Amino acid sequence: MDLSLRVVRYFVTVAETGHFGQAADRLFISQPALSQQIKRFEAQFGCQLLERSRSGVSLTPAGQVFLDEARALLAAGEAAVARTLRATEQSEIMIAFVAGTPHDLTARLFHAAESMQSDLALNLVRIDWASPFAHLRSGAVDAAILHLPCQEPNIDYQPIHNEPRVAVLPSDHRLAGLEKVSIDDLDPEPMLDSNFNREFWLVIPRPSSREPCVVQPAPNSAEQLMDLVAQRRGIAITAQTVSELYQRPDVVAVPILDIDQVQLGLAWPAEHPASAVLRLADALAVECSP
């Protein structure tokens, strides 16, 4: 079967709008031409994907299954194009970073790029904590600076920075005036959930074997984390740099003395790495070696 991405996009647009006329307007083609293309597409499948009625169109069970697959096909196609274009444009790479990336680390990144190639341009884009790998998988970026550990399949990474983890507390919290705390001190405290590296940030399991008291929501950004802590919705464990870059008078950060530090790493798709990213990872590894 000859699966044209153009017609796949036609199908997705019709399915999302629920109307041939609206879909035709979005696609800048005539409604009769669009309808004919979809009919031919269904004939290739040998089954009906759309139910037509006077009020519009709806998906058949087969159409619903194919809609999910079609969206994945289009995303994969766009990612392939993005990776191919960047592979031919070695003078520029896109790198995403999460909130809490130290300024001196991004400075090291630019320094490493300059040492590799004088005309290599780096473009940085900030991403949310909730979906750190989405940009890598879509091909929107070549690499990302993320808090480790990284357990995502088909993603390679190079550790490039270590720093302590801290407890983020309301300024009038019973532990707020201490110079340091232990993880046992935090056991009875309600703790904001985490939607990335959950066991690491909630410290599971704990030395006391107690389960942390986890509360929602899980913050999607550093700003939201600080807001929720200030509202006394729960305390949080985060990287020291996050607490420094997003500090506010109603929230304090106290170092935790008996848990591992957090690492930041440069991550990239294992199957389609940009050569400039691999060289950049090597340069950063040399810079952070003892």
Chain-wise SSE layout:
Layout: H1 5-17, H2 20-27, H3 31-45, E1 50-53, E2 56-59, H4 61-87, E3 92-98, H5 103-116, E4 121-127, H6 134-138, E5 143-147, E6 155-163, E7 165-170, E8 190-192, H7 198-202, E9 213-215, H8 222-230, E10 236-239, H9 240-245, E11 251-255, E12 262-269, H10 275-288
Parallel strand pairs: 3-4, 3-5, 8-9
Antiparallel strand pairs: 1-2, 5-12, 6-12, 7-10, 7-11
Helix pairs in contact: 1-2, 1-4, 5-10
Offer a concise description of the structure.
40% of the residues lie in helices and 22% in strands. With 290 residues, the chain is α/β, with parallel strands linked by helices. 30% of the residues are buried.
Please characterize this protein's 3D structure.
The protein has 10 helices and 12 strands. The protein has helices at residues 5-17, 20-27, 31-45, 61-87, 103-116, 134-138, 198-202, 222-230, 240-245, 275-288, and strands at 50-53, 56-59, 92-98, 121-127, 143-147, 155-163, 165-170, 190-192, 213-215, 236-239, 251-255, 262-269. The protein has 290 residues and is of the alpha/beta class. The mean pLDDT is 87. The protein has 3 domains: 5-85, Winged helix-like DNA-binding domain superfamily/Winged helix DNA-binding domain (Arc Repressor Mutant, subunit A), CATH 1.10.10.10; 89-163 and 263-288, Periplasmic binding protein-like II (D-Maltodextrin-Binding Protein, domain 2), CATH 3.40.190.10; 165-260, Periplasmic binding protein-like II (D-Maltodextrin-Binding Protein, domain 2), CATH 3.40.190.10. A hairpin with a 2-residue loop joins strand 1 and strand 2. Helix 1 crosses helix 4. Strands 4-3-5-12-6 form a 5-stranded mixed β-sheet. A 3-stranded antiparallel β-sheet has the order 10-7-11. The protein has a two-stranded antiparallel sheet with strand order 1-2.
